[in-house]
Amino acid sequence: MADSVKNQVRQRNLLSVLGLFVIAALFIGVIVMSNQLFRSARLDLTQDKLFTLSEGTKQVLSEIDEPISLRFYYSARIAEDLPDIGVYAQRVRDMMEEYASLADGKIRLEIFDPEPFTDQEDHAVAVGLQGVPIDQGGDLVYFGLSGTNSTDFQQVIPFFDQQRERFLEYDLTRLVYNLANPKKPVIALMSGLPVSGSQYSKQAPGAPDDSWTIWRQLKDLFGIEEILQVATTVPKETDLLLLLHPDKIDERSRYAVDQFVMKGGKVVVLLDPHSEVQASDPQRRRGPSPTIVAGSALPDLLKSWGVEMPAGDVIGDAQLARRVQAPTQGPVASRVAAVDYPLWLALGPDQLNREDLVTSQLSLLHFASPGHLVPLEGATTTLTPLIQTSDQGGKAKLNLAQQGAPKILEQTNLFTADGQYTLAARITGPVKTAFPDGPPKSPIIGELEKAIAEAKPGEDVADKQKELDKALKEWEDAKAAHIAEAQSPLNAIVIADVDFLADGLWVRVQDFFGQKVAAPYAHNGNLLINSVDNLMGSEALISLRSRGVFQRPFSYIQTIQRKAETAFRQKEQELLLELGQAEESLKKLQTQASGEGALVLSQEQKGEIAQFRDKALSLRRELRDVQFQLRRDVEQVTDLVKVINIGAVPALVAVFALILAFARRSMRRRAAHA
């Protein structure tokens, strides 16, 4: 009997051991099989869907026509010495692997660890990556991306800046899009300002180049074709239309712009109720009139887009005003005073849309006498502000800004703040033509019709009639090709200022051995470059917006900490003030006693000194209590979060194990009773 029991025990133990081996084998097998079967399966439980690619990115990846190679250079030392960047690097790598997975073999991803003094480090430097030193030894670490297409066209992200984590998907998708579409984009530029240089500098041999810095930057990045303000068509190869202060644009040119937009064309519009750059042109100052009108507006086009720029309004801001030197007239002689001029604005991060790719990374813009944009009631479009004034914005006097010498002091004294104004905006949505009756008639038709009607008897008008018939035929053809409703939603950026592009407001240009070297001190140029670059992409690329960040702080804890610190600082100041007063009184008593030459203090003086010492000790003790309370409140919440994060999963496993054990025991009891 005893041997039988022992054998049963041995069999049970053996079965238990074998069962453990079987469970381990099944566990490993399930993991291996799931890795193979569910490799493409994704479950994103993050609030901002950090690991879910947008539809725009998927569209860009599906439209790749040629193989693309992505080389990710990441120094493993980053994870050891810079853990925050190491976590971000893992997210970058995961996202790029997702790109390669969805590209159906069109993207080849290679990952390198460029250690110091290796061929991989040489390759990283050769492709333009930026090495960053992280210790005193001088060794550089790399965290960047290089991409090439089949024609060796290259795009590079020199170093993944953690501050652009919200725009990681856009940066990667933009790089892939540029590699898949390597042709240099073309801008059609219509301008009322000499951004490309004066006629003299263009025509006179050896004349100095007086083009604007922004013009040279645009030429480096894009192909530019200048068109006149009387152009009746937009060139066919145009990827984007840039209207820069079109102050003399005629009706037929506005119709050309309208039809370009109706065909789905992208447009960046810069208007200004009063251009100080244009008003300061010496040629415009000639003449008897002291008032200089230098404004641009496209009321009919803007109205069809659901937005208005009130032509008579110039906007200032009392809070953002820049300090300038203004001449004053005194009783004896004129002098110069420093005043905060509300029409010259220094716009900081608080005035910029941090969620839009165009303005997210800008920190300082200088505007001069800008206008403002207002959405129209019943508009089918959406106006998204990019740049706004503070709540100290207001309307200034246009007539004072238009004076030959702007009356700065008078303008400043009369300025009144009344709220926030939008200075630049993104306009999106379905739109209809601004010309519901079709294309305007050419002036030539009217001239020919008048000439024929007024012809003398016997005068040969056959040639004029042929010209008229040809012009009428062209007009009829244009009417037949007229588009009344946009073929795709409008994508436009409108900025109510043009002076911000003038060199004097954002860049210092120096001559260095015959070459112009620009040193920007504001981000004005970046604003236009970003606007053009953003709209140059496909609809899928434009649709991308900022995403959440991977490393999210404990916002609840931070809120408690900020409140506690605020209360602590207030209480601390009160206690320190009382403590200072007590110590000052104590010092006076001790000084008086020593001044009298008394070696022995009176009982009254001893009592007062002891009283102030006790008070000082009490105040210091209270300060320590306040500091202790601050730490205790924060630590309590922090400990609670740690317990939940660390203990939740083991607790759930334990509860599940207990339930399973209870269920198995119940089953055994039922089997035993049966």
Keywords:
alpha/beta; 7-stranded mixed β-sheet; extended
Task: Give an account of the 3D structure.
By secondary structure, the chain is an alpha/beta fold. The strands form seven sheets. A seven-stranded mixed β-sheet has the order 8-7-9-10-20-19-17, with helices on both faces. α15 runs antiparallel to α16 (462-480) and α19 (555-595) runs antiparallel to α20.
List low-pLDDT spans: none
Radius of gyration, in angstroms, nearest whole number: 37 Å
Count of helical stretches: 20
Please estimate the helix content: 40-55%
Distance from first to last alpha carbon: 25 Å
Anisotropy-based shape? extended
Q: Would you tell me the overall average pLDDT? A: 80
Spatial arrangement of strands, main beta sheet: 8-7-9-10-20-19-17
| Beta-strand percent range | 15-25%
Per DSSP E runs of 2 or more residues, the count of β-strands stands at 22
Largest sheet, in brief, is:
7 strands, mixed
Could you give a short description of this structure?
This protein is an alpha/beta fold and 674 residues long. The chain is built from 20 helices and 22 strands.
Helices, strands, pairings?
Layout: H1 2-37, H2 55-62, E1 68-74, H3 77-81, H4 83-102, E2 107-112, H5 119-126, E3 132-133, E4 140-141, E5 143-148, E6 154-157, H6 168-180, E7 186-191, H7 199-203, H8 213-221, E8 223-226, E9 240-244, H9 251-262, E10 266-270, H10 276-279, H11 282-285, H12 299-304, E11 307-308, E12 314-317, E13 321-329, E14 334-347, E15 365-368, E16 374-375, E17 382-388, E18 393-396, H13 398-401, H14 408-414, E19 422-429, H15 443-453, H16 462-480, E20 490-495, E21 507-512, E22 515-520, H17 524-536, H18 539-542, H19 555-595, H20 603-673
Parallel strand pairs: 1-2, 7-8, 7-9, 9-10, 10-20
Antiparallel strand pairs: 1-5, 3-4, 5-6, 11-16, 12-18, 13-14, 14-15, 17-19, 19-20, 21-22
